[in-house]
Amino acid sequence: MSVARAFTLIELLVVLVVMGVAAGLVFVNLGTDRARAAEREAKRLAGAIEHAAALAQRTGETLGISTQANGYRFWRRTAGDRWSVIGDDDVLAPRTMASELTVYAATYAGAPVAADTILPFRSSGRNEPHALVLNSPAGAFTIATDPLNRVRILPPATSGRESAR
User: Fold this and answer.
1) Tell me, what's the pLDDT at 1?
2) CA-to-CA distance for 133 and 135, rounded, in angstroms?
3) SS3 of 85, please?
4) In angstroms, rounded to a whole number, what is the distance separating the alpha carbons of residues 56 and 54?
5) Is the pLDDT of residue 103 over 70?
6) Among 52, 58, 100, which Cα is nearest to 76's?
7) Closest Cα to residue 53, out of 107, 106, 104, 120?
8) What is the pTM of this model?
9) CATH (domain of 86)
10) CA pair distance 88, 85, nearest whole angstrom
């Protein structure tokens, strides 16, 4: 007579604990990747803003930035006082971000701005302070400039919270 061997309760519990730990590690790792991706995007935007401000001074042109849901564009003011999208500079080329990220212009010279506003970078280098907000599942990063064209990235105050907009 053959006796069928089954798993013991201890063996089943060990397997469940191992699977739970593995699932927890995957979840934590995915959350960290999202936060890192949002931080990388904030750094990319901050670098592009610094580049645009320096380029405006170097070339004597007025440049600008505008935001749209999940992307942003840099603009050049033409001789006819019209704005045209910059397409000849890799750093300032229009950018569409991942669908989970959104960006908007929050303030210019301390006042709220309309959604379609182009924030200027003057050739004189004397620019009004402004702030853009990059929302992500990891939180909202604020990219802020001051009158001396210094750019700061303010990290999310609380993880997982999005800005009101």
Assistant:
1) 61
2) 6
3) strand
4) 5
5) yes
6) 52
7) 120
8) 0.75
9) 3.55.40.10
10) 9
CA distance 57 to 36: 32
Q: Is the pLDDT of residue 147 over 60?
A: yes
State the Cα–Cα distance between residues 131 and 140, nearest whole angstrom. Answer: 12
CA distance 136 to 163: 9
Contact 62, 122 (CB under 8 A): yes
163 occurs within a structural domain: no
Task: Answer yes or no: is 59 within a domain.
Answer: yes
Within-domain flag for 1: no
Owner of token pair 């303010």? 154
Place of tokens 């603009």: 75
Start-end of H helices in the chain: 9-59
Does residue 133 sit within a domain?
yes
Please count the structural domains in the chain. 1
Provide CB contacts within 8 A for 35, sequence distance 6+.
136, 138, 139, 159
Those residues whose C-beta lies under 8 Å from the C-beta of residue 16, and which sit 6 or more positions away, are none
Adjacent-strand bridge partners of 145 = 151
Domain that holds residue 43: 10-154
Q: Alpha-carbon distance 138 to 155, whole Å?
A: 10
List all residues 6 or more positions away from 39 whose beta carbon is below 8 Å from its beta carbon.
138, 141, 153, 155
